[in-house]
C-alpha cells in the first residue's frame, strides 16, 4: 500500500470519527434538552396542581363563613323578635316617659312665657304721696297664689333654709317679674299677722326697689296683695 492510500484511509477514519462525535454530541444535547423540558413540565405541573388544589379548597372555607354569617343574623333577628314580644310594657313606659317629658317641656315653655309677660299689665298703679318714700302703689286683681307643698295648719317660717322662705321668694318674684336668680332680698319678715309677710327686694343692678306684701292662702300658698315701688 502506497503512502497516499494509507493517508487517505486514515483521513477517512478521522472524518468518520469526527462525524460520529458530532452526531453523538447532537443526540446527547437533544436528550439533555428533552430531559430539561420534561423536568420543567413536571415541576410546573406539580405547582399548578398544588395551586389548583388550594384554589378548590378556598370556596369551601368561604361558603362555611358565609353560612355562619347567614346564621348569626337570623339568630339575632329571632332574639330581637323575642325581645319585642316579651317586653311590650317597655315601649309603653318609654311612650309614657316621652309624653311626660313633652308635658314638662310645655310647662317650662309656659312658665317662660309667663315670666316674660309684664307683671303690671293688668295692675292698678297709684302715685304715692309726696314725702312718703313711695313712688307708686301697684295692685293687681290677676295675682294668684304661687302654690305650696306644705300642709295645714300652716305657720310661717322665716328661716332662709325653710320651705316657707323658698315659696315666699317665689311669690316676690312672681309679683315683680324679677327672676329669683337676679333678685336681691333686703328684708323679708312678718307683717303683723301670722298669715301676712312683707319683703323688700330689688334687681341685682339696683335700678329699682320694691316693697312687696304677700298673704297666705290656705292650701294654695303665698299670694301677692300689693307692691310699693320705693322712690
TrEMBL record:
InterPro entries cross-referenced by the UniProt entry: DUF1510
Question: What is the protein named?
Answer: YrrS family protein
Q: Is Transmembrane helix among the key words of this record?
A: yes
Q: Where is the composition biased (Acidic residues)?
A: 75-120
State where composition is biased (Polar residues).
147-160
Domain of life per record: Bacteria
**Pfam family, any one:** DUF1510
Q: Which organism is it from?
A: Metabacillus halosaccharovorans
The keyword Ribonucleoprotein appears for this protein: no
Q: Where is this region: Disordered?
A: 51-164
Which UniProt keywords are present, listed alphabetically?
A: Membrane, Transmembrane, Transmembrane helix
TM segment ranges = 21-44
* Listed Basic and acidic residues bias regions: 51-74
Amino acid at each position: 500500500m502506497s503512502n497516499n492510500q494509507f493517508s487517505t484511509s486514515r483521513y477517512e477514519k478521522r472524518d468518520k470519527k469526527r462525524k460520529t462525535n458530532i452526531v453523538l454530541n447532537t443526540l446527547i444535547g437533544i436528550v439533555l434538552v428533552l430531559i430539561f423540558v420534561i423536568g420543567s413540565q413536571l415541576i410546573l405541573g406539580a405547582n399548578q396542581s398544588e395551586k389548583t388544589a388550594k384554589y378548590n379548597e378556598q370556596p369551601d372555607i368561604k361558603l362555611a363563613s358565609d353560612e355562619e354569617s347567614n346564621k348569626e343574623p337570623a339568630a339575632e333577628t329571632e332574639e330581637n323578635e323575642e325581645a319585642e314580644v316579651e317586653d311590650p310594657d317597655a315601649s309603653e313606659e318609654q311612650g309614657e316617659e316621652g309624653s311626660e317629658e313633652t308635658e314638662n317641656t310645655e310647662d317650662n315653655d309656659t312658665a317662660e312665657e309667663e315670666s316674660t309677660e309684664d307683671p303690671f299689665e293688668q295692675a292698678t298703679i297709684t302715685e304715692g304721696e309726696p314725702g312718703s318714700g313711695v313712688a307708686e302703689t301697684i295692685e293687681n286683681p290677676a295675682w294668684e297664689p304661687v302654690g305650696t307643698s306644705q300642709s295645714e295648719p300652716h305657720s310661717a317660717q322665716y328661716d332662709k333654709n325653710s320651705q316657707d322662705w323658698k315659696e315666699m321668694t317665689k311669690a316676690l318674684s312672681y309679683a315683680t317679674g324679677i327672676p329669683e336668680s337676679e333678685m336681691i332680698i333686703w328684708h323679708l319678715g312678718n307683717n303683723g299677722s301670722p298669715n301676712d309677710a312683707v319683703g323688700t327686694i330689688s334687681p341685682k343692678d339696683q335700678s329699682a326697689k320694691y316693697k312687696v306684701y304677700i298673704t297666705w292662702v290656705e292650701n294654695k300658698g303665698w299670694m301677692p296683695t300689693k307692691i310699693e315701688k320705693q322712690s
